[in-house]
Amino acid sequence: MAEITLTIDGKKVKGEQGDTILEVCQKNGVHIPTLCYHPALPPEGICRVCLVEVTGQRLLQPSCTFKVSEGMEVKTHSPNVVEARRFVVELILSDHPLDCMTCEMNGHCELQDLCYELGIKETRFPGVRHAYPIDDSNPFIERDYNKCVLCRRCVRACEYMNGVEAIGILWRGFETKIGTAFDIGLQDSPCEFCGMCVEVCPTGALTPIERKGQGREWEFRHVQTICPYCGMGCQLDLNIKENQIVQVQSVWDGPANHGWTCVKGRFGFDFTHHPDRLTRPLIKKDGQFVEATWDEALDLVTSRLGEIKEKHSSDAIGVLSSAKCTNEENYVVQKFARAVIGTNNVDHCARL
Ligand code: SF4
Ligand code: SF4
Ligand code: SF4
């Protein structure tokens, strides 16, 4: 890409042909507030929060979609720009419940951050507000469209990241809302509950049901880990409070999944704390499973494998491994089968 020079807020900076103004600003440490923009999604220039002044342009331009050119002059915080941003945010607030005190996303809300940055406490535009019923009819995602800012991030995530297109824009004008075809519940739509819409939503419009009432954002400890479900190796960011997983979030630079997860990785973590989870080995005695120590269990396995091998040969034994194990664990399993037991009867569920 050809390098170009432009002026941002009076300073000469470098960019590349094809960059947007926002991209050049981000590369050069110039902050422009955004709302509908998300780095993992194609920009759409919907919210108009990132408007900037470009010399020679009659109107303010959305920096997330406007491409730079040689010699361009841009003002990112002129009085006109700041006033336009405040106007846009106040219009959003005119139809927003403002119940930050009890909102699940308090402390993790981009609308809240915008109001803080722009010093907005209330809106000049009182008027009709929506009173949508809260939809918690599915087991994973609560939808409160009273808090929706119509940024379409969820729609883009569903289309471009999961490739499902379960949701889109319904109706027009003040009645515009996000929904499924015929406005049916997510559970009756093509939704796969990957949770990417929740992950990219900038407000409390979409929240994971499992997280509700489990704690405030600043109480969580973050631990990056690999999903335990399959051999894909998706990276996850666990929100943990008091040693319990409260929510799974995306790791955008995870090399295997780039932030995407399936329903199991995103919402299937409750097994970790389930009271029925096996935490000790069980040995069958008189037809009943009873708890044993690891030494007892391993001694039993060793002696039974030894008996079978002696009586029927090594090839009477087969070893099955699992895609839930790491490559290293699977390597050790096949080594155990071949070198210790002496059989090539090794198989793996990922082959099925
Ligand atoms: S979505 Fe954000 S601005 Fe709206 S109530 Fe929740 S925390 Fe407050
Ligand atoms: S959970 Fe996934 S499939 Fe369902 S609406 Fe959200 S992004 Fe689309
Ligand atoms: S539900 Fe969230 S992500 Fe979707 S349009 Fe509304 S605010 Fe944006």
Structure described in brief:
With 352 residues, the chain is of the alpha+beta class.
Mean pLDDT: 96
CATH-defined topology of the largest domain: Alpha-Beta Plaits
Record field, number of beta strands? 16
Order of helices and strands: EEHEEEHHEHEEHEEEEHEEHEHE
Instruction: Name the ligand types.
Output: iron/sulfur cluster
What is the strand content? Answer: 15-25%
- What is Rg? 27 Å
Strand order of the largest sheet: 2-1-5-3-4
Number of domains: 4
Largest sheet: 5 strands, mixed
Number of helices: 8
Approximate shape: elongated
Going by CATH, the architecture of the largest domain would be: 2-Layer Sandwich
**So what's the CATH class of the largest domain?**
Alpha Beta
Unreliable sequence segments: none
The amount of helix comes to: 10-25%
State the secondary-structure class: alpha+beta
Report on this structure.
By secondary structure, the protein is an alpha+beta fold. Helix content is 24%, strand content 20%. The chain is elongated and about 90 Å long. 30% of the residues are buried. The mean pLDDT is 96. One iron/sulfur cluster (SF4) binds next to helix 4.
